[in-house]
Amino acid sequence: MNVGQLLVRSGMAYAERPALYLGEQLVCDYRGLAHRAGCIGSSLLGRHGLKRGDRVAMFMTNNPEYLEVLYGSWYAGLAVVPINAKLHAKEAEFILRDSGASLLFVSADLADTLAPLLADIKELRVVITPGTPAYAKLYQSEPLAAAASCDNDTLAWLFYTSGTTGRPKGVMISHGNLLTMISCMCADIDLPSPLDSVVYAAPISHASGMLQFPHMIAGSSHTVPVSGGFDPAELVELSKVRRPLSLFAAPTMVKRLVDHIEATGADPSGFKTILYGGGPMYLEDIRDALRVMGNRFVQIYGQGESPMTITVLSRYHFTNVDHPRYESRLASVGVAQTLVEVRVADSNGVSLANGEVGEVLVRGPSVMLGYWNNPEATANTIRDGWLYTGDMGCMDDDGFLTLKDRSKDMIISGGSNIYPREVEEVLLLHPAVEEVSVIGRKHPEWGEEVIAFVVTEAGKPIDSAELDDLCLKNIARFKRPKHYRFIKALPKSNYGKVLKTELRLWLAAENAPEANKAPR
Ligand code: AMP
Predict the structure, then answer these.
(1) What is the pLDDT of residue 409?
(2) Is residue 459 domain-resident?
(3) Which of 21, 81, 234, 487 is close enough to 57 for a disulfide, judged by CB 3.0 to 4.6 Å?
């Protein structure tokens, strides 16, 4: 089934319900949203001559046109290629070339920087910017009455990986993959209602845009914040008028929202579900979040290759405070989602006993079709039907998965495995430590030694002995960092993920010219 059909249905079932807001201003109801998507789909096929299966790229900051372009493309049987608006124009250019997109929607704020790079992209025939007459013309076509019929394994979304190592790869996500993901969201996160709202504070091109699906099915309202992004004060204001309000937030956003609410004494009761994931949430931070905002959190663990759909730590598990393993559950990423199987295995795919650390494998109808034009990478990643996630973790007897690190981030010192996450958790217990990232550095005797990059609260220097002391009190002696580097900020990708590769380069360049050294 075509996921576009979800809006066709809601356009009838919830016709008069408010569908889309820009901040506090109503943009259209469900009838209107479905109509616009129908017109866009029809125009892409008719006026612009696209054919079923063609790719429509979207390089757009969050804006009210985002959803109608997604659904309009699906109505027409086209595949979308949403590109993170925070990427450099050259990175966007690479994705445009690699995906062979025929048409690009680019928002006005990004159009000028991208324009000079588009001239010689052969397949790209049309570029349209929302808010221009060319965009307005899309509404003039006679709307498609229904979404094109397509199979579950028809390509729906070409999602480019963050590419922290090497070039990003196009992950082929089918309509069936998305439908499975949506079913899991409804079963494992929330079943929204027409009275609910969702706000897009994180890029719609990624997880935030996935959260639109269950809300689209339910006839809930969708809000694009006027800032187009994450502003805690704006979110608090929206939670007053759009309650009950849900959102997806990366762990760093959760921390900033919680800090804001604590500092201002704002009322968190307008928030319904804050779905977080995409990176590690440290125990200290989620404890603070629960204390300040109450039980409004659900955690998911997924990756582009099985979008949003590997494990979930549900609302119930956050409330079950009397459970003897509450603490370890809070530090976990929860249990397998309803429609997938998850196991931990060695490098040959042999399942490990509970408690043993190995690679996390997932199997189920949410797992991608493969990598775009890259059968070799596909064969390396999906073996015997199991997706090898590259994440290391261990399962407890109740099926709760605790992630350790990406396999390539594990440190081996003196023959013992050290998971940086474990050391990071301990260092974050120090009240003056804001952020931390731990990596390994080659050592002639031990193989690798542990190095911690530490960002402290402004103006609060820390004596490394205090950090050593914390480690000695909490973890095995051999895991303690041998060196601490105090820096102003951690290098992060456009997706907000800490770039450990960059930290390694800094260390490798210690003897190189000053410019390459780690900033202090
Ligand atoms: P991406 O494909 O860019 O969404 O990145 C997916 C990766 O982010 C996963 O393979 C994990 O390494 C990490 N990740 C996703 N969700 C979580 C989570 N809840 N906790 C820790 N790491 C996560």
Answers:
(1) 85
(2) yes
(3) 81
